[in-house]
Write a structure and sequence with these properties.
26 strands, 3 domains, Jelly Rolls, alpha/beta, TIM Barrel, binds zinc ion, globular, 18 helices, 8-stranded parallel barrel, binds acetamide, 7-stranded mixed sheet, Chitobiase, domain 2
Length: about 700
């Protein structure tokens, strides 16, 4: 039996190993995503005279080409060796019997050379990405050993090329970065109301008509007629991938061990299809709704023909069929949909949607493919083999996993990188919210608290970059990077190896390298950070005092209730987003009208509250703020009357409306009037001093 005394040398050696590791930590802080296990050796490898490249194992000619290309991109001069070299080597061994898994690898560097082993070509490829990151300007490499493999098999990015078309060249440039980060799925959102973006031979109007519109900005288009125009019309804005473009992208991605997953939206988000083929509408009348008619056989004939062409181009096992946000409104009014429901015994429109998804799944399964869809495909009953992409939160994903379905997590609170990543006033116009790098990085798709029965179905994680507000390529890259780097590390690295501060240092370097390479990522060095007021609770005279909400301001929106009636005096200031449970949102005509009871007559020198304005989602400043005080709660004296001209602006703003002076009072009435713009008023705290 071991005694404590026997353990002392063991503990001491463990401590020593830890100290040694801390001292030598630097080299692995070059590799993103951070690798699994690293141990450090003595000395280094001098690769300045080049290395002898030797590849062994059964690689297909295609994999051989991919691996050799990746080796040549590491920044070391390579000479192809015919036999296993004894020194100055870079040896790559494909050994299907080794324990690295489908994408893992082991990599050892000592003074003689670099030895890499993997069970599959992707592992060799990823090892070479790590090696490339370790090569210094002086072409020296630290002696070390790495055992590395991904935590999740699915590490993806959604690129929306529907709202604004992006070219094949643009997509390939993003694929280059993904590959360096060991990401392996590019989900292309090819179809949506604002434009169809993939050639389909059977339906040429999808690209000669549905791919083009007049207003270039999505906002103008959405707020206007939402129509399409023929290709070649003067001023037509849009574009599409030809089949050859798509094949080129697929091949380019495959050379980097990335699978391209095409998304063809159904039954919702199909306005552009209906605009082109009105016979697939429930009513067959032009109208503003984007759901395909599920009653008509023509809908299935068309979708299957399209998918038939899609699976010829995209070898991906997964085909994304959308499934999100169908309004289902027209289906209850449609004879064909009603007949379908009657004949199939469907009791609700949710079941009607589910009928469609089941049928499409069966059709794709017969052809060897699997469907993946947004979490709404759970409604009305999930198709038997479907994988769920959980976006409205994690609930859909958890329910699907509990039922034994595979899940990709992309909850909007962490993975929707269409929200601004820094102080919104410093960022280009975007959808609302605030999603900084640190918050993305804090996400864990399968935390320790998740039961193993559920966690085993979590395939991985994806960043979604919707493009409604993103007109230019430069802006798109600005939104994508560096937040997608965080997704790469969440998808690959073990939670115990993740550390935000170290990650951020690496991300700054990656961003700098990208900038030098002509990319336009958000320049992380210049990050402003969260709203300063929100960082600590503040103390003031009204903190904790009771607030009475006068009608109708009592009816603040339940979704933006924050701390309900305590919100305005709880000492907690809001962040850059109204969706943080700190800002309280008022939607009714009355605006904000509250009375704070200070409990006793008090000397008051200032009263102020902040409001925000983000016009995109309809959040506006007040047009008038009135402040009045009273000693008895009956007779009020107005002390401030602050008028404000509300101007629609592209950039969000924050503004304080307040009074300063000296007055004695017990009750404070703070009233903020809404302007003529319909939308929310948001306020976080009424600060009294
Ligand atoms: C989605 O954001 N509607 C999937
Ligand atoms: Zn119908």
């Amino acid at each position: 039996m071991r005694t404590i005394r026997h353990l002392i040398p063991l503990v001491a050696s463990l401590l020593l190993a830890l100290v040694a590791r801390a001292a030598a930590d630097e080299p692995t802080n070059l590799i993103t995503p951070v690798p699994g296990y690293v141990s450090y050796g003595e000395g280094m490898l001098d690769a300045s005279r080049g290395l002898n490249l030797y590849i062994s194992g059964k690689l297909s000619a295609e994999d051989m080409r991919r691996i050799e290309t990746a080796a040549n991109e590491c920044g070391i001069e390579l000479r192809r060796a015919k036999r296993m070299p004894r020194k100055e080597f870079l040896c790559l061994t494909l050994d299907p019997g080794c324990a690295s898994g489908a994408e893992g690898y082991s990599l050892t560097i000592d003074s003689r050379g670099v030895a890499i082993t993997a069970a599959a070509p992707a592992g060799l490829y990823y090892a070479l990405q790590s090696l490339g990151a370790l090569v210094s300007d002086a072409l020296t490499l630290p002696a070390l050993s790495i055992e590395d493999s991904p935590r999740f098999e699915y590490r993806g990015i959604l690129v929306d090329i529907s709202r604004h078309f992006r070219t094949k060249e643009f997509l390939m440039r993003q694929i280059d970065v993904m590959a360096r980060l060991k990401m392996n799925r590019l989900h292309l959102h090819l179809t949506d109301a604002a434009g169809w973006r993939i050639e389909v031979e059977a339906y040429p109007e999808l690209t000669s008509y549905a791919a083009w519109r007049k207003p270039a900005t999505w906002k103008e288009w959405w707020n206007g007629e939402r129509g399409h125009v023929w290709e070649g019309t003067e001023g037509a804005y849009g574009g599409y991938l030809t089949k050859q473009d798509a094949r080129d992208i697929v091949a380019y991605a495959a050379d980097r061990y990335i699978t391209v997953i095409p998304e063809i939206e159904m039954p919702g988000h199909s306005d552009e299809v209906l605009a082109t083929y009105p016979e697939l509408r429930c009513t067959q009348q032009p109208e503003r709704q984007g759901d395909l008619c599920v009653g008509k056989e023509a809908t299935f004939a068309m979708m299957q023909t399209i998918l038939g062409e899609i699976i010829e181009i995209f070898p991906s096992e997964y085909i994304h069929i959308g499934g999100d946000e169908a309004s289902k409104g027209s289906w209850t009014e449609c004879d064909d949909c009603r007949r379908r429901m009657r004949e199939e015994g469907l009791e609700s429109v949710d079941e009607l949607q589910s009928y469609m998804i089941h049928r499409i799944e069966a059709w794709l399964n017969e052809r060897g493919r699997q469907i993946i869809g947004w979490d709404e495909i759970l409604e009305g009953g999930l198709a038997p083999n479907a994988t769920v992409m959980s976006w409205r939160g994690e609930e859909g994903g958890l329910a699907a996993a509990a039922a034994g379905h595979n899940v990709v997590m992309s909850p909007h609170g962490y993975c929707y990188i269409d929200a601004p990543q820094d102080a919104p006033y410093s960022q280009p116009e975007s959808i609302g919210g605030y999603l900084p790098l640190e918050k993305v990085y804090s996400y864990d798709p399968a935390p320790a608290t998740m039961s193993e029965d559920v966690a085993r179905y979590i395939l991985g994680v994806q960043a979604n970059l919707w493009a409604e507000f993103i007109v230019t390529d430069e802006h798109y890259e600005h939104m994508l990077w560096p937040r997608a780097i965080a997704i790469a590390e969440i998808g690959w690295s073990k939670p115990e190896n993740r550390n935000y501060q170290l990650f951020r240092e690496r991300a700054v370097k990656i961003v700098d390298a990208m900038l030098a390479d002509g990319y336009t990522p958000f320049d992380l060095k210049n990050e402003i950070g969260n709203r300063p007021e929100s960082k600590q609770p503040i103390d003031h005279l009204a903190r904790g005092k009771k607030v009475e909400y006068l009608l109708p301001s009592r009816y603040y929106a339940p979704k933006y209730a924050a701390a309900w009636d305590d919100t305005l005096t709880d000492g907690l200031r809001g962040t850059w987003t109204y969706a943080d449970n700190r800002w309280q949102g008022f939607l009714g005509r009355g605006g904000v009208d509250v009375i704070i009871d200070m409990e006793e007559v008090t000397t008051i020198r200032s009263i102020a509250a902040d409001f925000m304005q983000i016009c995109g989602p309809g959040v506006f400043m007040p047009c008038l703020v009135e402040i009045a005080v009273s000693e008895d709660g009956e007779n009020y004296t107005k002390i401030a009357d602050i008028e404000h001209e509300v101007v629609v602006d592209e950039l969000p703003s924050f503004k304080s409306f307040g009074w300063q002076g000296e007055v004695r009072a017990r009750y404070i009435r703070y009233k903020a009037h809404r302007s003529a713009y319909s939308g929310f008023l948001f306020v976080d705290e009424i600060v009294v001093n």
